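Researcher: Here's a chain I'd like modeled. Treat it as a single chain, no partners, no ligands.
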Amino acid sequence: MALLPLNSQLLDAAGRPLTSLQAINRLDEPEKESIYSSLLPHRLRDVLGLAENGFCNSAGERLITIIAPKGLPLVRIEARSKQDGDVVVFFLELSDTQFHQMELSFCIVRDPASPHYAVDVDESGANNWFASHGRNIPEELRAMRAGLFPNQTHHGLQLFAAFFPLLERFTDALGIQMIVGEPLSYDNAIRYEKYGFDYLRGKRLMMEIDREFQPGGRYFLRLDGSSPFRMPGMERTVSGRSWAIHDGIMDEPWDEVHIYRMIGVHAGINTFPGREDEKR
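Model: Modeled as a single isolated chain. Structure tokens:
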């Protein structure tokens, strides 16, 4: 049963309730794609030049790919600026959990007109899987100085604010009351706080990070200029802290932070209340 105002239970063409991604994935392709198209923000359509409710631009190139295999509880949506383009402008991966939750596995937004920063590969050009298998320090420096966060290959399009209400209404229409996720970096966690998420695991760590970046704290004292990612003053911004954490300033790797958002409820969590605003 839907909880949000003016929202209703999602039904298939025959009027049967849909309560999971796995149920949607059993449908025929046109109906399945029509349902999943509701997750595409209108501004993304404008950026790509898509026809209303369609997946092709004016030249007839299909720019949207929806991967939603029958029998599996997941969907992956990719939007490219060109049919054969290398830059994925919008990437979304969702999955059902065994506890009837919606897992927001990935949401990546890139501005295809912005410069590319090869932080996603090591210095030999091999995929580094979010820097877990090597780093590309020269590219990371370029990205940081251009105002990007760790793991960002391009500037974004500031689309998440338009996307998240669509996800919340979609989840609610399935009768699912909780969205869960796992932030891949400190700045991701802070960003999710802004959208009303709370912590299933990691809130104590986030509060410890804020405490230890205060004057006299462990991480504050390690901002000693020993690398470009550990410069004095970086404790004052989300970006500065995130790059320092990415550089290994903590005593343990960033890991095991799990978040959740109840449908229609903003948790009001803020684990970095003293941060300075950053223009991006």
